[in-house]
């Protein structure tokens, strides 16, 4: 299987070339176009329980599996938001992916939801994250460009900028400073990572965009 990522980092798209019998599993709605000898099947990976856990993690209930029925079949996919795509070769170690950042993978990679604990909830990232393990290829996406950071000790990231991190890293959600900083610095809560491993962050975040647009929204008048 060959692949290439184009239009990085603003409007990245993934283009995969499959040989006969090869498969790729994508998030629902990610397909832009495909060759005619690709067979698509839609199902709930992991059964009803697995699908429900993915839904709690912010992903769709269904995943699409594409199987090549001839050589050199092309599949074009893209994330729902304008941003970047990164390829992660998986070799057994786990990667934690924030909700909405999973794009697609090969069948050897298992994607499951993992309880993030109350600290994940209060960090604004939801109660569940996606845990990706196994061997194969994994592609993740972001809103904005993706920047990798090799953590050797500790590193602090705004919770809204986290895309993924290796399972070898532990984290703790806290405020940047005191209560004044929490409510008036516009930084909110941060995630302090500890250990040795790689972290992927995105250069933009949706809450900041929503805050920027809010003053310009149309407000319905109550006057008749």
Order of helices and strands: EEEEEHEEEEEEHEEEEHEH
Question: Would you tell me the overall average pLDDT?
Answer: 82
Share in helix: 10-25%
> If you consult CATH, what is the topology?
Double-stranded beta-helix
Terminal-residue CA separation: 63 Å
The CATH H-level homologous superfamily: Mitochondrial biogenesis AIM24
CATH architecture: 4-Layer Sandwich
Beta content: over 45%
Residue runs with pLDDT of under 50 for 5 or more positions: 121-126, 179-186
What's the structural domain tally? 1
Secondary structure: number of strands? 16
Assigned CATH class? Alpha Beta
Work out the helix count: 4
Description:
The protein is 13% helix and 49% strand. Strand 1 and strand 2 form a beta hairpin. The strands form two sheets. Strands 3, 5, 6, 8, 9, 10, 11, 12, 13, 14, 15 and 16 form a twelve-stranded antiparallel beta sheet that branches. It contains four helices and 16 strands. With 224 residues, the chain is mainly β. About 6% of the residues have low confidence. It has one domain: Mitochondrial biogenesis AIM24 (Double-stranded beta-helix, 4-Layer Sandwich), CATH 3.60.160. The chain is globular and about 55 Å long.
Describe how the helices and strands are arranged.
Blueprint: E1 2-6, E2 13-18, E3 23-27, E4 31-34, E5 38-43, H1 47-56, E6 63-68, E7 73-77, E8 85-91, E9 95-97, E10 102-105, E11 109-115, H2 117-122, E12 128-141, E13 146-158, E14 162-166, E15 170-175, H3 179-184, E16 189-202, H4 206-213
Antiparallel strand pairs: 1-2, 2-7, 3-6, 3-10, 4-7, 5-6, 8-12, 9-12, 9-14, 10-12, 11-12, 13-16, 14-16, 15-16
């Amino acid at each position: 299987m060959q692949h290439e990522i184009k239009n990085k980092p603003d409007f990245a798209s993934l283009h995969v070339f499959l040989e006969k019998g090869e498969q790729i599993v994508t998030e629902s709605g990610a397909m832009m176009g495909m060759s005619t000898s690709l067979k698509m099947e839609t199902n709930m990976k992991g059964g009803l329980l697995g699908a429900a856990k993915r839904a709690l993690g912010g992903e769709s209930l269904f995943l699409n599996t594409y199987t090549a029925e001839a050589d050199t079949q092309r599949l074009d996919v893209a994330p729902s938001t304008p941003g970047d795509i990164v390829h992660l070769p998986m070799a057994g170690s786990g990667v934690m992916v924030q909700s909405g950042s999973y794009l697609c993978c090969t069948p050897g990679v298992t994607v499951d939801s993992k309880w993030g604990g109350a600290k994940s909830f209060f960090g604004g990232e939801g109660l569940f994250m996606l845990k990706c393990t196994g061997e194969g290829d994994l592609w993740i996406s972001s809103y904005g460009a993706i920047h990798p950071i090799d953590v050797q000790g500790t590193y602090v990231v705004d919770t809204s900028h986290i895309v993924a991190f290796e399972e070898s890293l532990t984290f703790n959600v806290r405020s940047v400073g005191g209560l004044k900083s929490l409510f008036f610095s516009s930084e909110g809560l941060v995630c302090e990572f500890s250990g040795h491993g790689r972290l992927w962050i995105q250069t933009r975040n949706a809450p900041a965009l929503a805050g920027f647009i809010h003053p310009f929204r149309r407000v319905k008048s109550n006057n008749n």
